[in-house]
Amino acid sequence: MVFPVVFLKLADWVLYQLLANSCYRAARKVRNYGFFLRNQTPRSSSQQQAASLFPSASHCDVGNNIRSSQTLVCDIHGVLLRAETFFPYFMLVAFEAGGILRAFLLLLSYSFLWVLDYELKLRVMIFISFCGLRKKDIESVGRAVLPKFYLENLNLQAYEVWSKTSSRVVFTSIPRVMVEGFLKEYMAVDDVAGTELHTVGNRFTGLLSSSGLLVKHKALKAYFGDKKPDVGLGSSSLHDHHFISLCKEAYVVHKEDGRNNQSCLTPRDKYPKPLIFHDGRLAFLPTPFATLCMFLWLPFGIVLAIFRILVGICLPYRLAIFWGSLSGVQLTFQGCFPSSNSEQKKGVLYVCTHRTLLDPVFLSTALCKPLTAVTYSLSKMSEIIAPIKTVRLTRDRKQDGETMQKLLSEGDLVVCPEGTTCREPYLLRFSSLFAELADEIVPVAMNAHVSMFYGTTASGLKWLDPIFFLMNPRPSYHVQILGKVPPEFTCAGGRSSFEVANYIQRKLADALGFECTTFTRRDKYLMLAGNEGIVRENKRN
């Protein structure tokens, strides 16, 4: 009889916390809203008076007021980031680390989150997003997925103040594991004090640790003691006013300054660190409305992806282009068809930039001719559904060279010397092996655009890459053939294979408006997935 009694008491407590308290808070919100309508002018004036206690960050003379030796403290939510709610970032954790069902559950919870206060709302989102997930999966999302969205919503005014100081500490009620990787890798923060989560073994329980939700002004006092930090950045909320009032100088980032104001967006060339690699499937910031649209589109997207795959496999090139364009796939082609030298017994070597696994397929479709593609890693499923011949390389330079020589003697060959895909406008270092194999080299600048799902992944299932790309409402591919490399810039013209590879990399980067880098496949996978990106034959991709 003991267990039923304990269970009933626990259920009673949960119902009280989630229903009674929530209803009470909702009633208070309604009452306060009515009071606000009756007393609109006095309340707005009091808010303006509170906001005027500290100058706006937009009026801060960064060059004169802020010194490089100063210490700055701030929050990431509402200050460094322009977002009013952290819901999209919890959705990214739920979708990328927990899967589609967890993301759907979090979306359903949004229907009642608005009646909860800030603390309870945060606790619910943390529980749904983190419960049962492994620590390494959450850390991977924080390192490889979230930084892209944080940078795209970085408040320029706050960042200009931030960048002028030498020591920075962030205090936030957001779980530390969600923001620490970004803040230390991209923002050069000295320390992060955030909400700590409870774990059992290597998994999160979805509950807070014994310290509870971090209170910023208390954490600041505990961190600095009697010493006051030099500069405090806060939002226009009264809680932040208490927080930044403990600093020698304080500035406020107003919601009106960042909301729908394009001048507050940090442009790519002003990012604290270039964003070259990132992972994850979602290509959009999953706000509640955008996430709802994604779930409504998902059944149609799956059917559409299957239809597009069948069109590419079964129909001739011209019909495939026609039906593909009717289904929403946009293929643009520039350049001229290269003519093969009749004196040469070898085929033409096409050297492409690498955006997705479908690069050779779209090149073959644009040229309306069959091609053979070589790749370092290809899943069995991708091999089955590929409408062109694909050959897997071994990473043994001598063996791969012999394989490619044989394929060139049989016909035209497509190679992507970057060795892996890159989503951003950068080109990775080109392998020089291809330059030693042929004198007829045709560079092809390829670029892909998506609006909903990325068709590449470093830590997910690679056989789903083409399906996710084709699930987009209007995926697009741009194919630009630059013409054959002049003989004097080939190995036959006296150039080394490294010089040829670097020359072609620069030509392709100029055509696309990209930047050249020296990063390799190994660098990408070590950063995003914690491995070297080598796929073993006896393991699933």
From TrEMBL:
Residues 348-449 form the Phospholipid/glycerol acyltransferase domain. The chain crosses the membrane at residues 89-116, 289-311. GO terms for cellular component: membrane. It is a multi-pass membrane protein. GO terms for molecular function: glycerol-3-phosphate 2-O-acyltransferase activity; phosphatase activity. One of its GO terms (biological process) is phospholipid biosynthetic process. Keywords: Acyltransferase, Lipid biosynthesis, Lipid metabolism, Membrane, Phospholipid biosynthesis, Phospholipid metabolism, Signal, Transferase, Transmembrane, Transmembrane helix. It holds the Pfam family HAD_RAM2_N. Residues 1-20 form the signal peptide. It is found in: Membrane. Belongs to the GPAT/DAPAT family. This is Phospholipid/glycerol acyltransferase domain-containing protein. It comes from Gossypium anomalum. The lineage of its organism: Eukaryota, Viridiplantae, Streptophyta, Embryophyta, Tracheophyta.
